[in-house]
Amino acid sequence: MEYIGPIASGVPMSLLLTVLGFAIGAVGGVPLALMRRSRFRSVRFISRSIIELLRGIPPIVWIFLVYFGIGNGVIKVEPVPAAIVAFGLISCAYLAEIYRGGLSAVHRGQWEAGVALGLRHSDQLARIIGPQVMRYSIPAAATYAIGLLKDTSIAFTIGAQEILFFADSQAKQSSDALTPYLVAAAAYIIITVPCAWFARSVDRRLRVRIAS
User: Fold this and answer.
1) Contact in structure between 86 and 59 (CB atoms under 8 Å)
2) Three-class secondary structure assignment of the chain
3) Predicted TM-score of the model (pTM)
4) What sign results for the dihedral spanned by CA atoms 98, 103, 105, 106?
5) How many Cβ atoms sit within 10 Å of the Cβ of residue 164?
């Protein structure tokens, strides 16, 4: 199992790309989701257009656009920041739709209760609606995060030293081209299965808390 060590050295980078890309999306998806529910048609149109644009272009194309597009200009972009920006942009769109689904799942009576209590719109979102949206959004967001982790494998195409980068390097250096990729596949499984279990555990706890 000579390939385990070198390929495992790419795990931190894969996790870094996933966490930072997801974090950008978690923040950037909020205004997009709120815009999608605006009472102004023009605002809804702009938000939906941005989301469809970000989701409609494949991740690998976004990586190339950021890395070769911006990187060929005055500003030099390294592979890792380029990948983070690309994954962050895509995450904004997907998480915005997840948040929108969570907002739609909250009963209208919850908004009316906030109004009856004299709360401002921002306070309603922060104290009443927000926690419930998080509860509804966690399963879908966790599923997306797991998919994002697997999508980070394409970052090796611009030189980001993540799991697949080292697997590809080992395959090229060895006469055994299959085993390094099998080890990489095992690495993704080892990471994603506990993440999926943890997400289901959090979801069950939130169900119990809300029900009580």
Assistant:
1) yes
2) CCCHHHHHCCHHHHHHHHHHHHHHHHHHHHHHHHHHCCCCHHHHHHHHHHHHHHHHCCHHHHHHHHHHHHCCCCCCCCHHHHHHHHHHHHHHHHHHHHHHHHHHHCCHHHHHHHHHCCCCHHHHHHHHHHHHHHHHHHHHHHHHHHHHHHHHHHHHHHCCCCHHHHHHHHHHHCCCCCHHHHHHHHHHHHHHHHHHHHHHHHHHHHHHHHHC
3) 0.86
4) positive
5) 26
Token digits of residue 10: 């790419």
Of 140, 47, 128, 131, the closest CA to residue 101 belongs to 140
Cα three-residue angle 33-155-182, rounded to 5 degrees: 115
Sign of the CA dihedral running 135, 190, 23, 100: negative
| Blockwise average pLDDT, block size 10, the chain, 212 residues | 85 96 94 88 93 94 90 76 95 93 72 63 67 78 92 94 92 86 93 85 68 51
Cα four-point dihedral sign 41, 28, 79, 63: negative
